């Protein structure tokens, strides 16, 4: 029992250790996720700072007046921002004289003309409308809103109003609102800027040839979106010409490229996450504490589990020593189920012991009567009190046959219990078996008859005659003079059915479940008229079951009984 306790305890410790390991792994994963999220937030902040600096560079010719704007950005995001030119000269730095030296590698290059290979749309340069043009176009936009409902006007980076649902280069047709056409008319500023862009583009094209021919396409006269570099389907060289022309046109209007450095406000880089010795020790102590608590809880659980098992073991020992009254209260769960099974087994053993004692008593009684008769008459003959005439010999023979039947019955039951009851099946006519039994059991005081139909089965004819003979003898024994016993044989579906019906005393409802128990008799008086051994029906049940069949009984007290044997035909 101690080994079970120790094994359960060790198993619980293993579970606790695995739980700690899994918990540590989950904590590590959670920490890693938090770090990644923090890094993602930092990258998002850096991207926002970069975007605001690009906006400034795209709308200013240089970094001269950028200090106040960059200071505001630094305070907004809690970072130190420094900008240097290509030679390393500081253009703007939000740090002070006490700030550490800047890192060697910059975070990014702030160039509005090269943001991921593209020109920032906020770099409008010569395309920016003057005040008069701005007011005129917005007045057209207000008139268009009054003329057409359900439209939305947005403002392009150069100040031009346009419909929000139009993509670059798309124009709307206005049937009823002529102001819409005026809204999409190029201004003087835009015409001049497009003219300059076309000259630069043509110059670039003139310096190149495309598959042996010149390419003279340029932006159309009605283009309002300078981000459209060239017509669809143009060769890559043409696209490159348009990009270089736009950058050349916009360069004087934007700030020069600057290297961006981002650090903490003190200038230090964030510290790397490190599991110090103190932290490792703390984790170890906590893990050991959890392990101790898990071990203590496991010990308590194991003790509660072992307690009913110990009680069950003690009860088992008592039962083995002959105490049939041992019972266990195992509670609920699997142990409770085991305890209930033990109690059921103990009760069955007690019942078996009672049956054994009753059987010994019954066997002794059954043997005592014929043996007493035989001994008494033999002693009387020996003493000269009785003559050994044929009548006495017949009486002694009858008592001897009674003893022989009892011994044979006990032998048959012993074979059935040991599983050694042998059958010798062969094809037989079952109606012949019925006729043989009925003829052998004929009685002058009652009417015994058979109602049969031809039925052929494979069975042991001797054992079937014995089983059916026990039923018929039992019916005759309990049927009063003038009564009737009918033996029927018929086929029902795939079964051969034998029914023995009598008009006897019947069986009480409470006694019906016990009629096939050995040594059980409805008549407790053990009279010679109804005083059979109490083994016939028990033997019949074993013989029928050995043939793969079933035997049952239905009875009405005072009216008679019907015993039914069903065999596979």
Automatic annotation (TrEMBL):
The keyword Signal applies. Its EC number is 2.7.13.3. It comes from the Bacteria. GO terms for molecular function: phosphorelay sensor kinase activity. InterPro entries: HAMP_dom, HATPase_C_sf, HATPase_dom, His_kinase_dom, HisK_dim/P_dom, HisK_dim/P_sf, Sensor_HK_Regulatory, Sig_transdc_His_kin-like_C. It catalyses: ATP + protein L-histidine = ADP + protein N-phospho-L-histidine. This is histidine kinase. It comes from Lentzea flaviverrucosa.
């Amino acid at each position: 029992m101690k080994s079970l306790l120790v094994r359960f305890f060790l198993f619980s410790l293993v579970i606790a250790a695995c739980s700690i390991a899994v918990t540590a792994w989950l904590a590590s994963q959670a920490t890693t996720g938090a770090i990644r999220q923090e890094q993602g937030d930092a990258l998002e902040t850096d991207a926002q700072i970069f975007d605001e600096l690009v906006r400034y560079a795209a709308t200013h010719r240089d970094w001269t007046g950028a200090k106040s704007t960059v200071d505001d950005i630094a305070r907004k995001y809690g970072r130190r921002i420094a900008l240097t030119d290509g030679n390393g000269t500081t253009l703007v730095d939000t740090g002070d004289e006490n700030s550490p030296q800047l890192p060697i590698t910059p975070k990014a290059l702030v160039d509005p003309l090269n943001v991921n290979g593209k020109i920032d749309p906020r770099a409008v340069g010569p395309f920016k409308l003057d005040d008069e043009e701005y007011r005129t176009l917005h007045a057209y936009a207000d008139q268009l809103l009054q003329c057409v409902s359900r439209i939305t006007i947005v403002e392009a980076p150069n100040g031009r109003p346009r419909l929000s649902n139009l993509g670059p280069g798309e124009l709307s047709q206005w049937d009823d609102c002529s102001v819409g056409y005026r809204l999409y008319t190029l201004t003087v500023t835009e015409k001049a800027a497009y003219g300059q862009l076309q000259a630069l583009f043509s110059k670039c094209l003139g310096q190149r040839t495309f598959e042996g021919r010149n390419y003279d396409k340029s932006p159309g006269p009605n283009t309002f979106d300078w981000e459209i570099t060239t017509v669809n389907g143009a060769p890559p060289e043409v696209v490159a010409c348009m990009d270089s022309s736009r950058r050349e046109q916009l360069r004087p209007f934007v700030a020069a490229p600057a290297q961006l450095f981002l650090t903490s406000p003190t200038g230090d880089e964030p510290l790397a996450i490190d599991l110090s010795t103190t932290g490792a020790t703390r984790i170890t102590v906590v893990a050991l504490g959890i392990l101790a608590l898990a071990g203590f809880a496991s010990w308590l659980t194991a003790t509660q589990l072992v307690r009913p098992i110990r009680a069950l073991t003690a009860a088992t020992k008592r039962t083995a020593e002959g105490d049939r009254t041992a019972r266990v209260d195992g509670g609920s769960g699997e142990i409770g189920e085991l305890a209930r099974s033990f109690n059921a087994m103990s009760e069955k053993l007690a019942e078996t012991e009672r049956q054994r004692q009753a059987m010994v008593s019954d066997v002794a009684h059954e043997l005592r009567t014929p043996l007493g008769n035989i001994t008494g008459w033999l002693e009387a003959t020996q003493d000269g009190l009785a003559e050994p005439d044929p009548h006495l010999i017949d009486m002694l023979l009858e008592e001897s046959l009674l003893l022989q039947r009892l011994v044979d019955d006990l032998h048959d039951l012993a074979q059935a219990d040991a599983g050694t009851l042998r059958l010798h099946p062969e094809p037989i006519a079952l109606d012949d078996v019925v006729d043989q039994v009925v003829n052998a059991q004929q009685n002058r005081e009652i009417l015994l008859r058979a109602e049969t139909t031809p039925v052929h089965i494979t069975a042991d004819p001797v054992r079937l005659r014995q089983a059916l003979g026990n039923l018929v003898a039992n019916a005759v024994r309990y049927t009063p003079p003038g009564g009737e016993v009918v033996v029927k044989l018929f086929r029902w579906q795939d079964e051969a059915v034998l029914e023995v019906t009598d008009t006897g005393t019947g069986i009480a409802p409470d006694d019906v479940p016990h009629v096939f128990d050995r040594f059980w008799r409805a008549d407790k008086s053990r009279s010679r008229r109804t005083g059979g051994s109490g083994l016939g029906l028990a033997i019949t049940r074993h013989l029928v079951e050995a043939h793969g069949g079933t035997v049952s009984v239905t009875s009405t007290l005072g009216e008679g009984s019907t015993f039914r044997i069903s065999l596979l035909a």
